[in-house]
Amino acid sequence: MSSVLYQKVVKSFGALNVLRSLDLAVPDHKFLALLGPSGCGKTTALRILAGLDMPSAGKVFIGERDVTRLQPRDRDIAMVFQSYALYPQMTVAENIGYPLWIRGTPDAGRKAKIGEVAAILEIGHLLDRRPRQLSGGQRQRVALARAIVRDPAAFLMDEPLSNLDARLRLTMRGEIKRLCQRLSATTIYVTHDQVEALTMADFVAVMHGGELQQMAPPIEIYDRPANRFVATFVGNPP
Ligand code: ADP
């Protein structure tokens, strides 16, 4: 079963065709990296799944559900952006618990769940701090904790590591990969970084000019690229 499905998704902004008919099926519980150069349509594809943009044509499914017309909050997804967008006036615990609070989860249940995800991300000792009192890596972990606190069906990340320095980026790659292996969510991770995609993902979908070039496990993308673009982009040119 695929738990995330794009069916002939087209997106145009005026005369600009950003997605040209995207068909993409991500198997249940798997980690897919959406890889391609800047401007190829990765973020647009993610935003359509999240409900932040409407497709010009086509459908998106999460699990068995056609979510194309649903509001973002009804889609059972969580999203992490480049800028973590933490609430500066709230503590770490309040930030993490916010998605539960707005859904009316009772205090006890919320507290237990905050403790659970904070432990997974090893930020249990930071719960009373405010975002400005945290390092970049700690903020990133809080954003990840807030995203997974509701056990979403799909976990979407858009270049989440691009604001971190090289050393921290390397550490967080491993952390995010391990985190996603623990979740029951299907993960879609947008990046223009070949190494990130090839080392973190179960499947890599390479895009170019609004079209999917190839979707396959990393080793296959590298060893058997579907075309010259993929070969050159992943650093194994013919
Ligand atoms: P990527 O994530 O691969 O860098 P994007 O999906 O962000 O690519 O953008 C793909 C193309 O769509 C770019 O040319 C971008 O300028 C254009 N685009 C994205 N969003 C909008 C918008 N809201 N209005 C007009 N053009 C847009």
From TrEMBL:
Q: How does it sit in the membrane?
A: Peripheral membrane protein
Where is this protein found? Cell inner membrane
Which residues does the UniProt record annotate as the domain ABC transporter? Answer: 4-234
Q: Name one GO biological process term.
A: carbohydrate transport
Keyword Membrane set for record: yes
Major localization listed first in the record, in broad terms:
membrane
Ordered alphabetically, the record's keywords are:
ATP-binding, Cell membrane, Membrane, Nucleotide-binding, Translocase, Transport
From the UniProt record, which GO molecular function terms apply?
Answer: ABC-type transporter activity; ATP binding; ATP hydrolysis activity
GO cellular component terms, alphabetically, are:
ATP-binding cassette (ABC) transporter complex, substrate-binding subunit-containing
Domain of life, per the record?
Bacteria
What family name appears in the similarity comment? Belongs to the ABC transporter superfamily.
The name under which this protein is listed is: sn-glycerol-3-phosphate ABC transporter ATP-binding protein UgpC
Q: Which residues of the full protein are shown?
A: 1 to 238 of 365
